[in-house]
């Protein structure tokens, strides 16, 4: 198992590369979901302030 | 005729919003599954390279994010061009949704490339044509987002940023062919099919990881597109219906 993590002496480069790469993958997903949640919240807020049937 | 009817649906924000909501989970499930299998194949099953040893495994993250950094920009430029030519709001929304995704893929490309460059070239960074043109790609994404953020009128922001996206597309073939056109430390393109430069045991996890990242891009793009459409159409009756 330690051989696997050592990556023939290149572990200090291989694991950070995968960590950064997949860390960014997770970050892109979280920011996308956050953006959608914020947009829905904003739309709901506008709906509450200006219910259907009311003008202005 | 039926094809064009199908295409015209993509001009309808409520239809696209529903389409994105239905399809995003399928893209997400397939992307995660493919990523896990490809990771196992790349990190465990593939043998070490005879020259680079296990350092070559960085290819399983670097090549997919690098490919996507260019593919996302190409998608953004095409969407921007469609928005400019046919004045489709959905196309401008799609272009806008692409930008942060592509910018993060470009950051990942540069970071993983630096971590591969250090043990192979002896330096994290060199002003090589491939690396420099990839850095220019990051500036193009940041410029696109900055331009959108700097213009208050949404229609003017759409037009100005679309022009930048289309003009900036010239950088994509420069990145792709920089290793052929100029002397470069970066290796030339690797053939993955036909007379492949790598053994199949190394190739299949890479092809699967590429597929996984394209599916992942589809997933996050559909989520961001929904958010973008809700913001743009905030006064439309369909938005009131979907959030009520």
Characterise the protein shown here.
The complex is a heterodimer of chains A (56) and B (244). Chain A is mainly alpha-helical and 56 residues long. Chain A has one domain (2-49). Helices cover 79% and strands 0% of the residues of chain A. Chain A contains 2 helices and no strands. Chain A has helices spanning 2-6, 11-49. The radius of gyration of chain A is 23 Å and the shape is rod-shaped. Chain B has 244 residues and is mainly alpha-helical. Helices cover 78% and strands 0% of the residues of chain B. Chain B has helices spanning 2-9, 13-45, 59-86, 89-121, 129-150, 154-168, 171-181, 200-232, 237-243. In chain B, α3 (59-86) runs antiparallel to α4 (89-121), α4 packs antiparallel against α8 and α5 packs antiparallel against α6 (154-168). The radius of gyration of chain B is 20 Å and the shape is globular. Classes of the chains: A mainly alpha (56), B mainly alpha (244).
